[in-house]
Amino acid sequence: MASFSTSSAKAGSSVGGGGWAKAKHQSAGGGGSTLERIQQIELEISRTQKNKATAKHLGELKAKLCKLKRDMLEPSGGGGGKVAGFEVQKIGDARIGLVGFPSVGKSSLLTALTGVQSEAAAYEFTTLTCIPGVIYYNDIRIQLLDLPGLIVGASTGKGRGRQVIATAKSCDIILMVLDPTKDDAQKEMLTKELENVGIRLNKKPPDVTVRPTKGGGLKFQATVPLNHFDEEVCATVLKQYKMHNADVLVREDVTVDEFIDVIDGNRKYCKCIYVYNKIDLLKLEEIDELARRPQSVVVSVQNKWNYDYLLRRLWDEMEIVRVYTKKKGQFPDFSDPIIITPQRGNKLFTVENAVLLLHKSLLEDFKHAFVLGSSVKQSPQVCGKDHILHDQDVVQIVKLTQAEKAKALHGKKTGTTIAGSNIKVEKKKEDKAPLKS
Ligand SMILES: Nc1nc2c(ncn2[C@@H]2O[C@H](COP(=O)(O)OP(=O)(O)OP(=O)(O)O)[C@@H](O)[C@H]2O)c(=O)[nH]1
Ligand SMILES: [K+]
Ligand SMILES: [Mg+2]
């Protein structure tokens, strides 16, 4: 039904790079280009039945496949180099990318949400570069990037695909713009293109730790029953990565693909909202069905439908925490919050995070904080560094007085925990432990 696989002549010629991957990646071991070997392995995987007896073989194939894909994306030597995204300066508190097949209305949406004119037209590949705009929402600035349309094969160099995807990888959230008149094969195809370069949509990093060791082989431990993965498959995958000695701790029911993600590294776990645009072309029942799909929002740029909801959904996905600061005896400064975006690696927003964002040296003088807002039972409440703040809390930092600081410093010097020596003491204990037992 969907006809996205047809990469138009324009796409091929505008890049002059359809065969780039092939030309540059002749495999060292002979037997065709990297691309051909990838296709062979993919075929073999699809033909192999999935059961206990084949799990080890599949694990090996998948690990090989993963390494080949990485070789292709990050060629080592031969003047290749990692593909860079479009050079657009990151501004604001979060970055969101518009990804989709050609002519689904990405540019129209950028213009509608940011006011920045990005050319929109009825022909494919109207946009050939990255156009940034800014959405102002709830005191924060969100950078929205319009990107050229993707086609199938983008991750292997078709169209401006690799550049588009590299830019998408720099985003905190992806808005996948979809054509509501076509089936969801488009969603799967795009997801696959993004997955090929290590972007994982709406997934969490697997709860698995792998610690390389100097000897002792593989030490495998799982804290939950595993239905798709076991020690043997783990060993096969690790062998492909030449890891023969490692401690592996699995804390969730992972698949081999998820385990490879951990080993291979360089994955980007990214939230994604599926935006069905042009719903003005649909019947009400059809709109209703799309709107109920998970992580999906329906809009019509032409009719200006549902922007409010789209923005609210975006906001919720960003899980942004704004914390306002206040000086003693004054009203809080509501104009300039400290902002934490969990997408950028800060899982929780503690008082310590807030202090560090205000000023690094402030932590030395930190005594406690008065916190007002939903994170505390009474407002204000005296809180320490580890207290976790909520969105729209107000914080007043109380510093140590000179006398208190001197006292604290004195205590440190005379006590056993002289600054900096902490780690050494612990390490010594650890070293000695095996001797004792
Ligand atoms: N019916 C309808 N048409 C729309 C809507 N939004 C955009 N269009 C039309 O769809 C066509 C493509 O829009 P663009 O914004 O250029 O799409 P794009 O995804 O940026 O396309 P490329 O840059 O070529 O990848 C234009 O003719 C728009 O007028 C909508 O909500 N309803
Ligand atoms: K277009
Ligand atoms: Mg466009």
TrEMBL record:
A Pfam family hit: MMR_HSR1_Xtn
Chain intervals with Low complexity compositional bias: 1-13
Positions of the OBG-type G domain: 94-319
This protein's UniProt keywords: GTP-binding, Nucleotide-binding
Keyword GTP-binding: yes
Keyword match Cell membrane: no
Name recorded for this polypeptide: Developmentally-regulated G-protein 1 (AtDRG1) (Developmentally-regulated G-protein 2A) (AtDRG2a)
Species assigned in the record: Durusdinium trenchii
